[in-house]
Design a protein that fits this description.
The chain has 368 residues and is mainly alpha-helical. It has a single domain, classed as Orthogonal Bundle (ABC transporter involved in vitamin B12 uptake, BtuC). The protein has 14 helices and two strands; from the N terminus they run ααααααββαααααααα. The chain has a two-stranded antiparallel ribbon. β1 and β2 form a beta hairpin. The longest helix is centred in the first third of the chain and has 28 residues. The N terminus and C terminus are likely disordered.
Length: 368
């Protein structure tokens, strides 16, 4: 009996490797526009105004622009921390206005020194941040609603002690007496002082931005804040105290708002009741613009700073050209709209925050 024939099965020859096609230029150009578009716009705007307005390109004008932008930039930095955890602090402008009123009352009504006024303002800023954190984390009120309500509370409460009046040296107080104090030269130094050619507000701004960048980009706490903004549920499952980091962001925001208020009141030299009224929109604007810088797609300190510089260049240049305020507002709105297009339309990224990494990594970082 013959042996059964064995059927030999041969492996199918693997197909030859496809030829390498030319890299498509469309995605590369798109990524380049998303990453470097706003930097290019900033440089081109600066070159345009420097070429058309001789006074614009002087060092004095550049330093003045940075000095004027410092308040908005610092408030934007506080907003950056709030947005990094997926929230938004609608009370930053009101907090800056409250800092203005409290500093003015401390120095003019109670005749206290510079250090006392600074301590009072920072302490109140931290207390407001803690109150926001308590309402958001413990009482579980949504961030936007909490800070919106606090905005109205702060705006009204800050005017109660002064009966809605601006606080200035030599004014008549509600009890009929003349205010005994005044803004000291050492306090005005916060805004008017210089270290070499650089104004003190610019130095304060840069120091705070370096610290803010280090915290968010180089520390465990910053990475967890971004992860909370991306996926709080995953981070909570990793054993991280999500509420702690959300609350921390609003306390930092309150602190930075008080610093911005100190610079603002040292600049205007009185407790103006309208101080900080437009600061909220400006802080939101520069933070949103900053999310599109380098295609990062998330709130970040250097992006916020560049957004501030871009808007101050535009506003200053248009002012030198004699353009009315409504043209400036229109241009500012177009810049914000362009930033949103960069972040949500042109960007190829599907995430707007850094995705939460795996649970094991967060457990190790949180425990370590």
């Amino acid at each position: 009996m013959s042996e059964p024939q064995t059927k030999t099965i041969t492996a199918k020859q693997a197909p030859s490797a496809p030829s390498v096609e030319a890299t498509p230029w469309g995605p590369i150009v798109q990524n380049g526009i998303v990453k470097y578009g706003f930097i290019a716009v900033t440089i081109l705007l600066f070159i345009f105004f420097a070429a058309t307005q001789p006074a614009f390109r002087t060092s004095a004008t550049i330093l003045t622009m940075l000095k004027l932008a410092s308040v908005t930039a610092i408030l934007g930095l506080g907003m950056t921390f709030a947005m990094s955890v997926g929230g938004m602090d609608m009370s930053v402008g009101a907090q800056a206005g409250l800092a203005v009123q409290m500093a003015a009352m401390t120095m003019v009504f109670y005749n206290k020194n510079t250090f006392t006024a600074i301590f009072v303002v920072i302490a109140i800023g931290l207390c407001v941040g803690l109150l926001n954190a308590f309402l958001i984390v413990v009482c579980r009120i949504p961030d936007l609603l909490t800070t919106l309500a606090m905005m109205f509370v702060i705006q009204g409460a800050g005017l109660i002690p002064v009966s809605g009046q601006s606080v200035s040296s030599g004014m008549t107080m509600t009890n009929g007496n003349v205010a005994p104090g005044k803004f000291t030269d050492s306090f005005r130094f916060i805004n008017n002082g210089e270290l070499g050619p650089i104004p003190i507000p610019v130095i304060i701004m840069l120091v705070l931005f370096v610290i803010g960048w280090f915290v968010l980009a180089r520390t465990k706490w910053g990475r967890i804040m971004y992860a909370v903004g991306a996926n709080p549920t995953a981070v909570k499952l990793a054993g991280v105290r999500v509420g702690l980091y959300r609350g921390m962001a609003y306390v930092i925001c309150g602190f930075l708002s008080s610093i911005a208020g100190l610079i603002l009141v040292a600049r205007i030299g009185q407790g103006d009741v309208t101080a900080g009224s437009t600061s909220l929109l400006e802080a939101v604007a520069v933070t949103l613009v900053g999310t599109s810088v380098l295609g990062i797609g998330k709130p970040n300190p250097w992006g916020t700073l560049l957004g501030t510089i871009l808007i101050i260049i535009m506003v200053t240049g248009l002012s030198m050209m004699g353009q009315p305020y409504f043209i400036q507002d229109t241009a500012r709105g177009l810049i914000i709209l362009l930033a949103l297009l960069f972040s949500y339309t042109f960007s190829r990224k599907s995430m707007r925050f850094v995705p939460a990494t795996n649970v094991t990594q967060f457990k190790e970082e949180n425990d370590g």
